[in-house]
Model the fold of this input.
Amino acid sequence: MKTAGHDYGIQKLATGIQGFDLISLGGLPKGRTTLLTGTAGSAKTVIAAQFLAEGVKQAGENGVFVTFEEPPRDIRQNMAGLGWDIRKWESEGRWVFVDASLQPEQEEIIAGSYDFSALLSRIEHAIASTGARRVAMDSLGAVFTQYHDRSIVRRELFRLASALKRIGVTALLTSERTQEHGEISRYGVEEFVADQRHHRAERP
Done:
């Protein structure tokens, strides 16, 4: 994993992921949105989930997981093998899923006006109801496959990141990149909605 674009004047939030905090010089910028990118199979979803899991276990910080791709039941099942009892944390009000994944019965949306107003309202409600301090969003590639107008998606992602910053939560947002070197992300716009402090997830 690589990091770039450090700003030493920004207060950091320790993620609780030991290696990640080491290479990122203390964690993620507190109260900001950070973009994590990686090729397929580079454990982006695991890191996003661990960011919330360590918050619950170590810091007493509740979390919201916004999934654009995998349904919550799959994430619960996959992460159980790592010893994270997400279902228990949900029952305790310490972890909330916001399911924005495309359902099998839904039609793909490829045109027309679209905004994240409904999604933002759901995220804000989840944060307020749990007192969450951490938000994970995985993965933006699913958003771009549904909505082909990148200018609209870029505008709405910027609005989402701005809202999370206003609320004061620390957010980790994941996206896929096609190769280990070169462009930060596949779609070339996600980096403009984060705070220009990018973390690249790579295979060991």
